[in-house]
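This part of the workshop introduces the protein records we will be handling. Getting from the letters to the tokens is the skill we practise here. The record below serves as our worked example for the rest of this section.

…
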Amino acid sequence: MIRLIPDDTSIPFMRVRSWTFGLSAALVVVSIILFFVRGLNLGIDFVGGSTIEIRTPPPAADIARIRQVVGALGLGDVSVQEFGEPTEVLIRFEEQPGGEEAQRAAQERVEKALKEAIPGVEIRQTNFIGPKVSGELARDGTLAVTLAVLLVLVYIWFRFEWQFGVGAVIALVHDVTLTIGFFSITQLEFNLSIIAALLTIVGYSLNDTVVVYDRIRENMRKFRRMPLAELLDRAINETLSRTVMTSLTTVIALVALFLFGGAVLRGFTAAMIWGIFVGTYSSIFIASPILLFLDLRPGTFEDADEDKALQRP
């Protein structure tokens, strides 16, 4: 069996907590500043516009030629990407001034220009997302991420003590904020699939955090007199091999999808790769060390066990 991490590691993670907290705080601030200053490259899902799926004659679509034909129409920001097969192309362009009629006219101009420039081209599907729909999608996406984080707080609160719930939510907010900062600095398109990626990152990061928290709680019952910092180090080291192997195997699959999955999946897989890296980091360097600052006492479970014993008939 391959073991990247030995079972008996004793890495003193708590000794560097001041540095990791400082680094994370700086990255969160930079991400927020980037979001307000640079903004996100919002996709048509959020700002409105049209998408046209076409199929060209084999062997492969001439992306540069298609971009030249559509770009010459003066429709503003235009995106041309290979979609699925080498002959399938997805064209996107922003919402045109003049409302729905102007948008329909622009779509017809694109279709006509493509048919004239590329004999045999097939218009497979045309979609228009208006400003009202895009506004609702943006609102629903934000609501979905916010509700996910709040429900995580409730779940952890019931499963563990309140300190664990606060620590998990701080780690999740950290992960989501850094992912938004990542999209702001890279200017990759931010669309509905990225919202799905954010929700997946929330679930993945939570899973990692709960595994470490379970071990912390178990060790608090076994080593009741052990200093909390030493106990946290022990719990993280005991779960380190599982954490690294899970993250590494997931990233390998995502990198393959990023390289060979095509342009349509590139934003989603980029968000997931970054999210897994950040989620693994936060479960070790944020969610656990923060318990030291939330008044979690090694005798918490001892007191709870004694209370239960006293209540027994």
Summary: Residues 201 and 275 are 6 Å apart (CA to CA).
